[in-house]
Amino acid sequence: MEERKRARLRRTPASRASKPTSVFTATMGGGARYPYPKQVWSPAGGWWTRPSNWKSNTAIAFAGILTFVYAGWTYSAEKEVRYIEPVRPIPSMLWAKQYRDRQKSE
Question: Which structural domain range is residue 85 located in?
Fold first, then answer.
């Protein structure tokens, strides 16, 4: 039975081959871009924005985020104090000032 279907498909001329049933199935992607006002300002950049300097903007934003994270990390590591000694080693013992000073003195 499978062979008959294949043979029938081979004999079907291109004009009778299956065609899309509607215009919408043939053109995918949501259609064309619609008209929009040119004088609209948006903090996100407006419609279909593709800034040419997106890579440098991303690098600058990432550097700023890393700067603030590093500053917060170092401040937290300096101020961290554990009044009860942990039973097992914990990750913050690697960077907390309380334990770094103890390791240097030993």
Answer: 53-105
Mean pLDDT of the chain: 76
Q: Tell me what pLDDT residue 4 has.
A: 64
Please indicate, yes or no, if residue 48 is contained in any of the structural domains: no
Distance CA(48)–CA(38), nearest Å, equals: 12
> What pTM value is reported for the model?
0.51
Tell me which amino acid residue 23 is: V
CB neighbour list of residue 70: distance below 8 Å, 6 or more residues apart: none
